[in-house]
# Entry
Amino acid sequence: MLEVSGLDKRYPTGDHALRGVSFTIDGADAVFVIGPSGAGKSTLLRCVNRLVEPDRGTVRLDQLEITGLTGKALRDARRRMGMIFQEFNLVERLTVMENVLSGRLGYVSLWQAWRRRFPADDIDAAFVTLRRVGLEGFENKRADELSGGQRQRVGIARALVQRPRILLVDEPTSSLDPRTSEAVMELIVGLAAEDGIPALVNIHDVPLARAFARRIIGLRDGLVVYDGPVERLDGAALEQIYGGAILAETGERSRPA
Amino acid sequence: MNVTAARAWRPPSPWGRPWIGPVVWTAVAAFLVWNVVSLHVDPARIARGFARFGTVAARAFPPSFERLGILATGVWESIEMATLSTLFGVLLGIPVAVLAARNVVPLPVYAGGRLVITLARTFHELIVAIIFVKAVGFGPLAGTLTLTLNSLGFFSKLLAEQIETIDRGQIEAIRATGASRAKVLLYGVLPQVLPRIVGLTIYQWDIHLRQSTIIGIVGAGGIGATLYNAFARYDYDFALAILLVIVAIVLVGEAVSAIARKRVQ
# Structure
């Protein structure tokens, strides 16, 4: 269970990215966060695993307060949160296998990491996960040889091999074409459901969110302006999130509710 | 009248005020003239020098390879110095480069790393060699230490700059797995800069080979010492042989370096 409460973040540049964001994710559903660029979606995700340091507020994962942790305790907490990125963020010059196994870095010693000698269980898990994302036989390819969709599958495998309690997914399809986007999104949502873990997914493609989401959180200027089932996300709600201009990309017409 | 004024357009002065330009240029010209006078740049003396150079050149031909043993010892010592100092330099230089890369260490550490690099770059290798000769005595040890220190100024600086240009996303992804700082360096940073490390190492060796031929002049070992002695004893034919060998070493070093770097890319 993820409990986010009163999360506030102002960057040194003056951008007030989050203004007291609160929500709870219970169960194993994927929750989709939508909102215009600069609404604070990326910051929110990164405050959850503390890649970005929030100014105020708390984040709890399975009762453990993440916001107070430092050093080893924080790294141990990060192991339990798998993250998937917009630009895939694979280590380009390493093999697919090394990229997937890097998901186990939090569990192995520095010596093991240096020698690339991961425990047999981790290697088994990596092979199984590669099969699950549809990349069987790709283990010795270098990450920079892959197509965008394949790279994102490696990114998904890297996150899953951590055996996380939650997936943090940042615009996973923004660098992909529409058909690949759909396949990748299906994979993320499907595999998270198989593993019985929730996913917190940032996305700006509203139709794609509608197709996969049951619950949607709408963020605007660092505030939660909508939090509810996808069925209630009507024109008025979208107008609340995106302001007057309902963008063409949302595929929606603004109409009074 | 307005039309005439418009046709007299001049580009705006880069100095802010139009009169500053001429003043600056006049000052620079005066400084140069004064330099020529105070340094006694005398055409007659230059002409006499050329004449004397002719005598030296005449006595240098044909180059003498008679004392091949001494020559070979000196050359070999230079190659050893260059190779060993490159190894030490890289082993020390990689950690220094990490400490001097703004995107992977906190500001105070970065300042310290930069300070080491700046200090290593401050003095020409000849000055450093003189100091090491005073400290550890004549011979190749002083030369090896000199070139190792030199690596911190060159190798570390360029590697640190490379580290500063790496893709942050890859680092972020490794951090997000719960990896420690050391593991982030190992998995997020090292793979991104490895080709550069290999390329710079070869380049550094090439440079050290060149430098090792000169620092012998102040007693720090290598072929330079042999060259200095040959000049001191007016053995111009032997000196020419040494110079030819240095040219050959540098060319071979450059060729090896070029081939190796091409293979790394």
In short: Chain A touches chain B at residues 49, 51, 75-81, 83, 85, 87-94, 98, 102-106, 110, 113-114, 155, 158, 162, 168 (CB under 8 Å). The radius of gyration of chain A is 18 Å. Chain A has nine helices and ten strands.
